[in-house]
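Revision sheet: structure tokens.
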Amino acid sequence: MPNIGPIEIFLVLLVALIVFGPKKLPELGKSLGRGISEFRGTISGEHPAPEVESAETKTADTHA
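Predicted:
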């Protein structure tokens, strides 16, 4: 696998800037950072994994 150099990183950031615009880019960075932080915390055991409710549980709760 080839190494990613500074030119490739610059091109990716430039394309992201063109696609998303300068106002949306900081929000995307913050949400990406939070996601990575939560992922690392869940993997290391610092944060408990979120419980996922199944569709059966939701329908049983609404009909009760």
